[in-house]
Specification:
- This protein is an all-alpha fold and about 190 residues long.
- It has one domain (about 1-185).
- Helices cover about 85% and strands about 0% of the residues.
- It has helices spanning about 1-20, 20-30, 40-70, 75-90, 90-95, 105-110, 120-145, 150-155, 160-185.
- Helix 2 (about 20-30) packs antiparallel against helix 3 (about 40-70).
- It is elongated and about 50 Å long.
- The termini are far apart.
Length: about 190
């Protein structure tokens, strides 16, 4: 298992953070304490997957977002309060969207539909992604240290780790989203 992790672990991490960031990053970083993966590479590849994800959705928004939204009135109605909130809190949203579970696809799509230049989004995406990857990896490292997680535990309890870290991420994300949704409704 250790050979498999060391051979494909960083690639799997980048792919995992493209689709579901916290769970992949927490699992990988929890194994850095045991020396299975290197902390700095986990931060880098976690950041890389999130950066590619941000840009993928940004360019979908830039190239086709307005047309896509105009064809779906129900979706347009749901995006209007988010767009209004974004316009009033642009700086804060751009620096924190990586931490907003459930908004990580919507926000880059929406930003792609605004007048924000790609170079501006690059700066925010880079800063938010690197901060997010570093903080989540640090948390994962301490979880791995506290529970003494290693490759044997990982091999025997993969699904338990996925469910545990996903549940933790969902719980934190739910709380953050509830606060964000409340602010969006109050400001619109």
């Amino acid at each position: 298992m250790e050979e498999l992790i060391s051979r494909f672990g960083y690639f799997a991490l980048a792919l995992g953070t493209f689709f579901e960031g916290e769970t992949s990053l927490l699992i990988a970083s929890s194994l850095t304490n045991a020396g299975v993966l290197k902390f700095q590479y986990v931060v880098f590849f976690g950041f890389l997957g999130s950066l590619v994800s941000d840009w993928f959705y940004f360019f979908i928004g830039r190239l086709n977002g307005k047309y896509f939204i105009e064809k779906r009135p129900a979706l347009k109605a749901k995006l209007e309060p988010v767009s209004f909130f974004f316009e009033k809190n642009r700086f804060q949203v751009l620096l924190s969207f990586r931490f907003l579970y459930g908004f990580r696809i919507v926000i880059p799509l929406m930003v792609g539909m605004t007048a924000i230049k790609p170079i501006q989004f690059l700066g925010f995406s880079f800063t938010a992604g690197l901060t997010w990857a570093t903080l989540v990896c640090t948390l994962g490292y301490f979880i791995g240290y506290y529970f003494q997680l290693d490759e044997q535990f990982f091999a025997k309890n993969l699904w338990l780790m996925i469910i545990g870290f996903a549940s933790f991420g969902l719980l934190v994300g739910f709380g953050v989203n509830k606060i964000a949704a409340k602010r969006i409704l109050n400001e619109s």
